[in-house]
Design a protein that fits this description.
Its EC number is 3.2.2.9. The protein is α/β, with parallel strands linked by helices. It has a single domain, classed as Rossmann fold. It is built from five helices and seven strands. The protein has a five-stranded mixed β-barrel with strand order 1-6-5-2-7, surrounded by four helices. Helix 3 links the parallel strand 5 and strand 6. It is globular and about 55 Å long.
Length: about 190
């Protein structure tokens, strides 16, 4: 694709499924990098359906402890520093946003939760896989990059927006992936 050898996979939703898929790419296909492209809900109110967000960092928003007085969020354990696959000037030259992508195993469809995520993490978007994929990449020394197309605004009508925008966001994902591959000259896997 775009003159590059590509292993293209579609992973089911959720952190566990995304981590399994990433590990299969590492162990079975020995990929040099993982570029994950998919859907996300907008946490940043300036993002619209169809906006593109490129990760500056990823975090699990549902990792922590539930105490009698509420949830205590913690950083998940990590085995190292992420080896990000640089997007270079590609994303900004296209007018795409950079930001924090939050990951959790729940689809966010509540204004209160969306606003809390924005306040707590200064996040741009929320998905169900990026942070899990990043953990696998860290453990395997594989550079990674996350590109998310906004499918909904993570509010009470998020599910309806997601269902209505899924096909057009899928098409946009393919276009953005082709743009990225045509532009990129990414580092190889450290072994």
């Amino acid at each position: 694709m775009e003159g590059k050898r590509v292993v293209l996979v579609r992973s089911p939703m959720g952190k566990v499924n995304n981590a399994i898929t990433a590990q299969l790419l590492a162990s079975r296909f020995h990929v040099d990098r993982i570029v994950s492209i998919g859907f996300a809900g907008a946490i940043d109110p300036s993002l619209e359906v169809g906006s593109v967000v490129v990760s500056e960092r990823t975090l699990q928003h549902d990792f922590g402890v539930t105490k009698p007085y509420g949830d205590v969020w913690e950083l998940p354990p990590t085995l190292g520093k992420p080896a990000e696959a640089e997007a270079g000037g590609w994303a900004s030259s296209r007018g795409y946003a950079y930001g924090t992508i939050l990951t959790g195993d729940r689809f966010v469809a509540a204004k209160e939760k969306r606003d809390w995520l924005r306040k707590k993490f200064s996040a741009s978007a929320v998905d169900m896989g990026a942070a899990a994929i990043q953990e696998v990449c860290i453990q395997n020394g594989i550079p990674c990059l996350f590109i998310r197309i906004i499918s909904d605004k993570a509010g009470s009508d998020a599910r309806d927006h997601f269902d209505r925008s899924a096909q057009s966001v899928n098409y946009k994902s393919v276009e953005v992936l082709k743009e990225f591959l045509g532009h990129s000259n990414l580092p190889r896997r450290s072994r």
